[in-house]
Amino acid sequence: MHLLKRLFNRTVLVALAVIFQVLLLVSFLTAWNDYFVWVEIHVRILSVVTLLDVFNRDMIPEAKTTWTVVILISPLFGVLIYFIFSRNREPRIHRHLFSCMAQESRRFLDHGGERTDENKLPPDYAALCRYIAHTSGERADCGTKAVFLESGERFFEALVHALEHAERFIFLEYFILQPGVMWNRILDILKHRIADGVEVRLIYDDMGCASKIPLGYRRRLTRAGIKVCPFNKYAPVLSAVHNNRDHRKIAVIDGKVGFVGGVNLADEYINVTHPYGVWKDTAVELTGPAVNNLTAMFLQSYVTQSKHFEPFEPYMVRQPSHPEAGEMILPYADGPKPMYRDAVAEQVYLHLIECAKHSLWITTPYLIPDHRMLCALEAAAKRGVDVRIVTPHIPDKRLIFLLTRSNYRRLQQAGVRILEYTPGFIHAKQLLCDRECAVVGSVNLDYRSLVHHFECGVILYGTPAVEQVGADFDNLFLQCQPMDHYRQGVVARLVSATLMVFTPML
Asked: Which of 200, 212, 218, 496 could be joined to 406 by an S-S link, Cβ 3.0–4.6 Å?
């Protein structure tokens, strides 16, 4: 019975359906070999036209290189794969609803809360506020209290406390949830709060949870009274839209308390299980007006996926400022084109990298930046900035780990210090600029996060939380191994070089 459950779970069935489609495609191409001469002529014409489309498309240069290689290696198969997988446009109804909700949120956020006076900020950070307001629509707030949570365990404790005191509504948006100690505890609280009349909505990424939750689990949650909305529900059809995953980690309680960071709702994130040694993660707890930014992000996703428009002003809360609040608390959202015209998360990082004067410290589980990011990091180190990047010592994905390590040497030659977190796997995604401005969120330094995923984060300036992030880095460096003398072997370099060509697809 256990074997049957494994063979007929959703992940296996979807994989078999996709394999079947690939075999059909290969059979179709093989059958065309009987007409080789005519096929060859038409394929060459088609491949030239396709390459012109590639070079004139609005996409990152690395992706253009990848598709050029694929088309040149196998013109017919490459052209078909290009038209199936390169255009990851969301359905029209999704784009329409997302646009409507973005306009709704802008109307409220433009006039709600106590906004940061940009004239009181350093020019670099004021410019960052204007950029985010112009692109994704979120506004900086000076009346919100921010508390940095330096571990998944601290996050879990704070989240449980906030959930237990919910009175009106609870919004949860996570890439992964998995039954276990963490999620079961949260689910018990949600059921109790629902019994007391609290509205609970949940978004989970359908692909992220494909191997984490059993068949029919959504129905079980719905019967418990939770309004469940799987993000980009995975269908066994060859399509690039499945690249667009919801990688955000957001919790909103009553519009008064919000959480954002890297922690998902599964046991390894709080070290109940240890698949990759000690798991290091971080998050930020927000209390005050800036939580409305997180509420707007959640409702944009929820309405887009549920395909049912609704006003969200009833969930937006006007709150008094906190006397201990900082000068700038700015939660921001990011996502793929065409939902977001700019790569907001990458621009936030690039801006802070370029304006760093003394120090720039980064943690990321995957270090596979594009050319612009690599050049910016190198330039910062060359102008004398203390650039340090912390990556895992125990990987969760072997091939991705090879790619991460393949970038060490180039960065080190420019003066960047690479350190690996020796106790295990560091999943925290954070940046600290000159020990005065910090970013904590869900964004990895890889193509998936920077190009394909829906992401979020919070920028902190002039708040005690920044000092807490700095203290966390100080403690983290004591647990890290410098990789100054690391060199990849010949085989590892060959595999990495091959994979690097296709990283925009990974």
From this structure: 496
Q: At residue 294, what are phi and psi to the nearest 5 degrees?
A: -70, -40
Q: Which letter, b or e, does each residue of 340-364 get, where b requires 16 or more Cβ atoms within 10 Å of its Cβ?
A: beebbbbbbbbbbbebbeebbbbbb
**Between β-strands 359-363 and 430-433, what pairing exists: parallel, antiparallel or unpaired?**
antiparallel
- Report helix, strand and coil shares of the chain as percent, to nearest 5: 50, 20, 30
pTM value? 0.88
Q: What span, in angstroms and rounded, lies between the C-alpha atoms of 294 and 299?
A: 9
Mark out the alpha helices in 141-259 (DSSP H runs): 152-164, 181-195, 217-223
d(CA 315, CA 144): 17
Structure tokens at 415: 């003066």
pLDDT tens figures, 253-291: 999 999 999 999 999 999 999 999 999 999 999 999 899
β-strand partners of 460: 329, 438
- Residue position matching structure tokens 């902190």: 460
CA angle (247, 234, 163) in 5-degree steps: 45
Query: What CA–CA distance (Å, rounded) separates 291 from 287?
Result: 7
